[in-house]
């Protein structure tokens, strides 16, 4: 039996080593450019450049609405690029809010490779571009980025769509046979971070979310002392969770908070 056991151990070790080496390819799924100009997406939009603390130049779109009570900084999830968030920008600007869409390093037409530390730099660079009150809107992985930024500088309000408790928690859900907590280089401890933030917060989830377990989003809502909005039957990437009326209403509610 010794031979088969050694073979099995070798296979497991090899799998773990491969997962460790390529783990960020299992976390980040950027879509490349090129992208249209902001003016092609929405009339009056302008292209902007974000300069990160580690010297990267990132692309973004700024849609300014005169008299807006706040600018919504959108922190995307782990897939696609900012073009996929254009419908959300259209809905929010139509309701009187300014919006900043940007891509993380390695996404869209941006240089660099994504990591937890890198995305934190990117988020700070986005915040530096906005004057006046801001609302953070984070979707999935972006909720983790927004939560970290909120511990650095508190926004007027915080909206977290489909947040996970931590990257290890959601990773363990999908790969229960792997020692995820030991392997992960990026942690994204959302529960820990939202508990340290005291701003008006809304957490949205889809009850049929197949990517982030709804139970984890409920944990985040409890830790953040947030209003919880559950969208019945919605899966992770459904339009209703990306730019639907409950999403827009949640952003408006925190933007108008005293």
Secondary structure layout plus pairing:
Blueprint: H1 2-21, H2 23-27, E1 29-30, H3 38-41, E2 46-51, E3 57-63, E4 71-75, E5 79-80, H4 86-94, E6 98-102, H5 116-128, E7 134-139, H6 141-152, E8 157-161, H7 167-174, H8 180-183, H9 190-194, E9 201-206, H10 214-224, E10 227-231, H11 239-243, H12 245-255
Parallel strand pairs: 1-5, 4-6, 4-7, 7-8, 8-9, 9-10
Antiparallel strand pairs: 2-3, 3-6
Largest sheet: 8 strands, mixed
Reading the helices and strands in chain order gives HHEHEEEEHEHEHEHHHEHEHH
Mean pLDDT: 91
The total of beta strands comes to 10
Rg, Å, rounded: 19 Å
**Fraction of residues in helix:** 40-55%
Looking at CATH, which topology would you report?
Answer: Rossmann fold
Structural class: alpha/beta
pLDDT below 50 for ≥5 consecutive residues: which ranges? 5-22
Instruction: Walk across the major sheet and give the strand order.
Output: 2-3-6-4-7-8-9-10
Q: What percent strand?
A: 15-25%
| Secondary-structure arrangement, i.e. CATH architecture | 3-Layer(aba) Sandwich
Number of helices: 12
Q: In CATH, what is the class?
A: Alpha Beta
Number of folding domains? Answer: 1
**What characteristic shape results from the CA principal axes?**
globular
Classified in CATH, the superfamily is Alpha/Beta hydrolase fold, catalytic domain
Measure the end-to-end span. Answer: 70 Å
In short:
The chain is of the alpha/beta class.
Describe this entry's structure for a reader:
- It is built from twelve helices and ten strands.
- It is an alpha/beta fold and 258 residues long.
- The chain has one domain: 3-Layer(aba) Sandwich (Rossmann fold), CATH 3.40.50.
- The protein has an eight-stranded mixed β-sheet with strand order 2-3-6-4-7-8-9-10, sandwiched between helices.
- α5 packs across α6.
- It is globular and about 50 Å long.
- About 7% of the residues have low confidence.
């Amino acid at each position: 039996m010794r031979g088969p056991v050694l073979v099995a151990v070798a296979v497991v070790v090899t799998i773990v080593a491969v997962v460790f080496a390529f783990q960020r390819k299992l976390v980040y799924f950027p879509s490349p450019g090129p992208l249209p100009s902001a003016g092609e997406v929405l009339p009056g939009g302008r292209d902007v450049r974000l300069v990160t603390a580690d010297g990267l130049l990132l692309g973004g779109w700024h849609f300014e609405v005169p008299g807006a009570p706040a600018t919504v900084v959108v922190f995307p999830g782990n897939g696609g690029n900012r073009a996929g968030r254009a419908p959300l920008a259209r809905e929010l600007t139509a309701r009187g809010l300014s919006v900043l869409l940007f891509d993380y390093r390695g996404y869209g037409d941006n240089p660099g490779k994504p990591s937890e530390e890198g995305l934190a730099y990117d988020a700070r660079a986005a915040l530096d571009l906005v004057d006046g009150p801001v609302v953070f809107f984070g979707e999935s992985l972006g909720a983790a980025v927004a939560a970290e930024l909120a511990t650095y500088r508190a926004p007027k309000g915080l909206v977290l769509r489909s947040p996970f408790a931590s990257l290890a928690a959601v990773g363990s859900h999908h790969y229960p046979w792997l020692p995820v907590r030991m392997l992960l280089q990026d942690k994204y401890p959302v529960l820990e971070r939202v508990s340290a933030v005291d701003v008006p917060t809304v957490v949205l989830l889809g009850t049929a979310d197949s990517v982030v377990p709804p139970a984890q989003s409920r944990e985040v809502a409890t830790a953040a002392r947030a209003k919880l909005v559950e969208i019945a039957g919605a899966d992770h990437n459904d339009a209703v969770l990306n730019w639907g009326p409950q999403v827009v209403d949640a952003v408006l509610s925190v933007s108008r908070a005293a």
